Structures
1.
Amino acid sequence: MATTTIGSFPQTPEVRKARSDFKKGLISKDVYEREMKNYIDECITFQEECGLEILVHGEPERNDMVEYFGEQLEGYGFSQNGWVQSYGSRCVKPPFIYGDISRPKPMTVAWTSYAQSKTDKIMKGMLTGPVTILNWSFVRDDMARGDVSKQIAVALSDEVDDLQKAGIRMIQVDEAAFKEGYPLRKENILAYEKWAVRDFKISVSTAHKETQIHTHMCYSEFNDIIQTIEAMDADVISIETARSGNELLKIFKDVGYKQEVVPGVYDIHSPRVPSIEEMVKQIKLLLEVLPKEQLWINPDCGLKTRKWEELKASLVNMVKAVEIVREGL
């Protein structure tokens, strides 16, 4: 029952201002990078102090999990005001694909390597998967979606290779929008699943046997796609289950899923801080579905929209709850 988080930490006003000022040319690259590194240092210090076992760098440099990668890939463009509602009052500005996709240089290696240099614990590399990048972009219509996705996957495979060459032993390839991209017409589903699984596998095809591959899927029904998830063959999958009463998790037991699973133990979409007792109860319920050897513990999604005071209290309680459950095993 290793403890970790999905990846992102709070996007504070200071972090957003530093990114905006750098983009506008109001601060130098040195000043910007110092601000980002100071934030990463704070994230690592907190995670070590609260007892998390697998760390993340917090992603302060990322404006959005798709836009950030699109800005660094050839073949992508951006609008100034093309905002799209994501959920609630949150909006994103999807990039648009106008040409062939390629990766001219590493996109995440410098930040992840810096974070790893600050701790002896494992630092997860964080990438957005090819299918999610595709589904959350405006896609060119002169080329099949599967062919565009494959180009993105090849670019990401180079990033996976560079991360592991830099000493990163655990890499998470988020496929938050995997289920979201399913065609409405049943006759088109098999074709989508075929190239979507293919492209996830391409994106991690450069991973060595020793490199552990994670993926994350946002809240959705998994019963009808569990075989597709198995075919993706990620070593560890994290899923949002905190709002489902563990119903979504039962399918993994029913099919005899062999890989490791990270069900969220609390809902990050609320500012409420769950108590230690509440999370102890939730973890024990999870253990009724999956054995401890197959189970990881983390929040059910990224922490980008939360405030630091909420995050700190919740993660401290989560780690303490895991400690209590472990003592009783």
2.
Amino acid sequence: MLNALDLFCGCGGLSLGFEKAGINILLGIDAWQDAITTFNYNHKNSKGICADLSTLEPKDIESTLNGKKIDVIIGGPPCQGFSVAGKRIIDDERNKLYKNFVKFVNYFKPRAFVMENVPNILSIGGGIVKDSIMQDFSVLGYTVVYKILTASDYGVPQNRRRAVFVGFSDKLEFKFPNATIKNKITSKEAISDLPDETILDGNVYPLPPQTDYQKLMRKNTNKLYNHKITIHTEKTKKIISMVPDGGNYKDLPLELQQTRKVHIAWTRLDSTKPSFTIDCGHNHHFHYKFNRVPTVRESARLQSFPDDFIFLGNQGSQLRQVGNAVPPLMAEEIAKQLKLELER
């Protein structure tokens, strides 16, 4: 079995996809303890380590590998410096975190690596960051390809776009997986079985599954977790109620359009389409039907985390963990293709 190391692993969405594809995750490393706590709870055969990868040296983790060889290194260096929301400053210190990813690849010399990030990593500074990444891995002897993938092409009910770099050490050239579905999963198909009420962790589902996707998410459990409703003020609920399914702040009266000074404010999910990108729980995006933000479980469904993947920490932390993650179903397709190439 192939062994992998997950850097900047978060709660483990990328790891989960690779596990589902039959790749063994030896270690996950992240600087955020909440994410590592969730990682360890859900990845029983792996070990999550809370450590700062900007100061951690590769040799420091060798003793935890028990002599096992790392075949693949995967991960997503923090992307705040590259994202649309950020200022996209080329010299942003956070943009240099990928150098630590390169350092681990250089030390362990895996047969392959997968590094994912926001699409803007390809265009920032006229491509200067992308060119630097390609050069760094090329010097190490890797043949690298990259592509922007859309999660909804792989059965994820979310139009999340990610730039994915894949490198092979033995002159293979990775072929990115084709779309796995023709009819994309809508947000309604993903979460319509989850009620507009808090369900205490571990209680049985109050409603039966209504779609094949919901059956897939429930496959290994008959109990519901992380479905706690956020209580909004009456004023907030009244404003949300004015926004139609799939609408946004432009559907509000003029005097209410400026109540939140961000362009994503008062946006409802569209029940007939995959979700927009699930983010980190800032309370600007709302359920397509109910006058509230999605619960952690609803957000996890939109990310393709199965219902037996349980998020730990306070509600705000859980939402951040979900929003920062790589959709497991998309990760699984990348991993299956990678495994196929390596085993060939």
